[in-house]
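Q: For a teaching session next week I want to show students how multiple molecules come together into a single three-dimensional assembly. I've collected the sequence lines for a complex. Could you give me the predicted structure tokens for the whole thing so I can convert them for display?
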Amino acid sequence: TLTPSELLALAPHQTLGKAARRDAPRVSPGTDQEHMASLALHHCVTAMPVVDEDGRLVGVVGAATLMDILRREHVEDLHRLAGIARESVDADQARQALTAPPLRRARHRLPWLLVGLAGSMVATYIVSRFEATLEARPMLAFFVPGLVYLADAIGTQTEAVAVRGLSLSHQPLGRMLVAELRTGLLMGGVLGLLAFPMVWLVFGELALAAAVALALSGASMVATGLGLLLPWGLTRLGLDPAYGSGPLATIVQDLLSLLIYFGCVTAVVV
Amino acid sequence: TLTPSELLALAPHQTLGKAARRDAPRVSPGTDQEHMASLALHHCVTAMPVVDEDGRLVGVVGAATLMDILRREHVEDLHRLAGIARESVDADQARQALTAPPLRRARHRLPWLLVGLAGSMVATYIVSRFEATLEARPMLAFFVPGLVYLADAIGTQTEAVAVRGLSLSHQPLGRMLVAELRTGLLMGGVLGLLAFPMVWLVFGELALAAAVALALSGASMVATGLGLLLPWGLTRLGLDPAYGSGPLATIVQDLLSLLIYFGCVTAVVV
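A: Of course. Below is the structure for the complete assembly, covering every listed component.
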């Protein structure tokens, strides 16, 4: 792999065998295209030779193809994060997603929403199990949307980091998980410490404030764990980890947050 | 802009002035780098000439730089979607986001979470305004997490489409907005029609089922509108539209969903 300018700058009688770099990156025909693009970026090359198991050149992936792969992976990630079934892989299709007739758009977006509707029913069921608690203390419903939102926000951060980072990091899962859980506990602790005096001050109940702060820290920690384990599990199954950061991860996180919150308030307040 | 192979294939006496393509894409020094990368992809070129206002060549952006830009924009989008303050722009940094010490990770992720905490307090305040409603009918709390989740899911879909699509589409905002709102109403209508018999069947109240279905359709439509208007507004302000799909958009959507839901149930049920 010599660049055209290197090629033109060669001494007249030099053979290519001497001039060619032997440490250049190469991929096999079975290499994932995203991994190949990452490798090209890492080595600052704009073309990637493909070699078979004997090291024979099978072909070369050029700069235009590499650029196209990078853009496709970008749009794919966004759509999987958002739970849109059909990927718009090129610029024309990305524009189309904003210009197609509403009926066609709805068709690409409804499948994940129906999964979400099923999840919503489970969420409704979970809250309904705490009807007696809510009847005794309607105030407990006040904190549900905020707590669920914050745990989701933390989980989404971990997922966004994991979706790109997992394919690049070579740390064992256990170590990454412990570090993420500590990050989650740290952030949840800060949020809990901030929420505690405010809830106490506004609602005048120490036990309620403690339960909300406790639930916030717990849900934050669970969110980081789930945000790492879901993309990791999908990678292991040979699926795109970006699915693990979409609407499915959100509803699973929501259900866990509800269980953690009602668990905490039932234990502490009621 | 001739490719090296085109250059080598020229007839011996042909002048470059005749061979060079004059319709090749070009950018000015002030062009946004993401726009430039999109232009290169669209025209299938792997290098982009930069010309000043008189058409004089200022420089050329090569394939390696274009590839680097595409990857940076990808990671940036993911991080802005997730509300992570510092962008990890290259592969090493993307890996670092999974290997840095928890304290440093938390520092990059807390700023948006504190904005989220403020939003959560507003959510708590909104629900607390309906304390009397909840005291009379604790059952109304059951549907809050599911409804808020579904509206968010729909809003996130629109945002993911808008973040990429807005820079490529040349339709007037009004037309895009009407189409998105119709898409939202369509999807919300489907979800509402599915939820209506289930709520009626399980909870045995026609008015409650109607209120939930109505709130679901309304919140879905608002979610598509907000999901388009926020990225659009940010683009107009010269900011990255990806910010309009992050945690800020989610909490704004959550607050609107709560108001729509409690508005509907107060009007229909109580």
